[in-house]
Design goal:
This protein has 16 helices and no strands. It is mainly α. It has one domain. The radius of gyration is 23 Å and the shape is flat. The termini are far apart.
């Protein structure tokens, strides 16, 4: 039995309110400070490289080191900002709630809704098996399920914000719209092939426990904690990939001749798009790690469509996700999934090389 008096309860509520206002104030101050720091990164990297370290401007080493010192804090600052925001968003979405939204929808409507939800719900490849099981258990059509499973990693919120920050709204919009189209069309095609029997039998025999209550009724203070924890967890896991990706990007930026990259990944090489998809598919990287490589490739003359196809194949046809999905899918359905997505990404690459 709660023995708190009304006066004590009021004091506790007032203390909570003051604490929440203080946290919002600190977040606002941090956000205000973020902007001037972000826009001073380029002059800081130049000072660090050419004044403090005394490297020579225009040399391979100088350009590579300057690129590295500029991109490391830039990518991390963008990453912390977006992961915190997505962490708060994720406190409103559980796999079970997402499943409930999609359940009972017509297939075409479900494909569109599933692809859009995939952008809003930041589930990674490690979530593929429990999500797939939950969707099947809820009776969601297999095509709708795949539209979500493709959209969630491919139209990655981290990649979207990093592309927006590094290349502007045009490239970010191209990435998001093409990813959504591929997810929707792939879901529709797989739904037409009637491949339900290509799901492992045991999947139909189990039931997921519902954990929606864990995130129900959270206060805004708790949601802020959820966002901060997401920053700690996600940035703590991906930072080695980010540093490695920026290192590769710096090497490309400083040492790879522009003519060479334009010849290999330029518009004139018709085979560059399918080759980029084949190279990207088995690579294990996350969005944060691959974006600096994309930045360096574009800076060296690679065509946007080819680089976009490479990036989307790395994110969308992830080898770890394919291996994880083998637990619930038979090889034939995995082959169809990989093949349809690869063809869609290839078409997107050719299309944007032709029109841009």
């Amino acid at each position: 039995m709660d023995n708190c008096s009304p006066k004590e309860s009021a004091v506790a509520t007032g203390s909570e309110s003051v604490n929440l206002r203080l946290r919002f104030l600190l977040l606002a101050l941090a956000f205000i400070a973020w902007w001037p720091i972000y826009f001073q990164l380029e002059p800081f990297s130049s000072w660090l490289t050419f004044d403090l370290l005394r490297l020579t401007r225009g040399t391979h080493l100088g350009d590579a080191v300057s690129f590295f010192f500029y991109d490391v804090p830039k990518v991390f600052m963008l990453l912390v900002l977006v992961v915190f925001g997505v962490g708060i968003l994720r406190s409103f979405f559980t796999p079970e709630r997402t499943r409930d939204i999609l359940a009972g929808k017509r297939e075409i409507v479900g494909d569109v809704l599933a692809a859009l939800l995939g952008v809003a719900t930041p589930f990674c490849s490690c979530s593929a098996v429990p999500l797939f099981i939950g969707f099947v258990e809820a009776g969601i059509p297999i095509g709708v399920t795949f539209a979500f499973l493709i959209s969630a990693p491919m139209v990655n919120e981290v990649a979207l914000v990093l592309l927006l920050g590094l290349f502007g709204w045009r490239v970010a919009l191209i990435y998001m719209s093409t990813g959504l189209i591929i997810a929707m069309l792939t879901g529709w095609i797989i739904g037409r092939l009637n491949m339900e029997r290509q799901v492992e039998d045991w999947v139909y025999e189990i039931r997921m426990q519902r954990n929606t209550a864990a995130l129900e009724g959270l206060t805004w203070s708790a949601r802020i904690d959820y966002g901060l924890q997401a920053v700690k967890d996600i940035v703590g896991k991906v930072w080695p990939y980010i540093v490695a990706g920026i290192g590769v990007g710096a090497a490309i930026h400083g040492y790879v001749p522009e003519g060479m990259m334009a010849a290999i990944m330029g518009k004139q090489a018709w085979w560059s798009v399918p080759l980029a998809v084949l190279i990207g598919a088995p690579i294990y990287s996350n969005a944060a790690g691959i974006i600096p490589v994309v930045q360096a490739l574009l800076g060296k003359g690679a065509a946007l469509g080819t680089v976009l196809a490479f990036m989307m194949s790395v994110i969308g046809i992830s080898l770890p996700e394919t291996i994880i999905l083998r637990k619930v899918l038979k090889p034939k359905l995995i082959a169809v999934f990989v093949g349809v997505v690869a063809v869609g990404i290839t078409i997107v690459g050719f299309l944007f090389n032709a029109i841009l």
